[in-house]
Amino acid sequence: MLLTVFIGSPKAAPDTLHTNLERLNLTPVSSEQIARVLLSPFVDEYPPILRYARIHCGIDDDMFSSFLADVAVKCLEVSSKVLFRYLCIRRCLTRVLCPGKDAALLV
Predict the structure, then answer these.
(1) Could you tell me the residue ranges of all domains in the chain?
(2) pLDDT digits (tens, 9 = 90+) for 31-89
């Protein structure tokens, strides 16, 4: 059911997603649940889900890179998740190579 909400609104704002989830009594959503959604082969729009995770799942800036790395490692088992791995690597490299550039804009 959770996956259906995220797939059904691929460009929705975090608050819109949260309202839809609340209507279905699917809140609170944990970071583990978000990771499973991101790992689904049916998900190809990552930024709205990641924005939702930052705002409504308690994944702050300090934990976000670690969360992305964990999901990227789990993506190695899912062949359709090549794009997500690329986005995670690009974000991490941008932080290291271009420290003045806001890496949060890449998500």
Answers:
(1) 2-106
(2) 999 999 998 888 888 889 989 999 999 888 888 888 888 888 787 777 666 666 667 66
Cα distances (angstroms) measured from residue 2 to each of 63, 64, 93: 22, 21, 31
CB 88 within 8 A of CB 69: yes
Q: How far is CA 79 from the centre of its chain?
A: 18
- In whole angstroms, what is the distance from residue 93 CA to residue 79 CA? 22
CA 90 to chain centre: 15
Using alpha carbons only, what angle is made at residue 88 by residues 21 and 80, rounded to the nearest 5 degrees? 75
As a whole number, mean pLDDT of residues 103-107 equals 47
Which residue, 85, 1, 80, 86, is CA-closest to 41?
80
pTM, to two decimals: 0.73
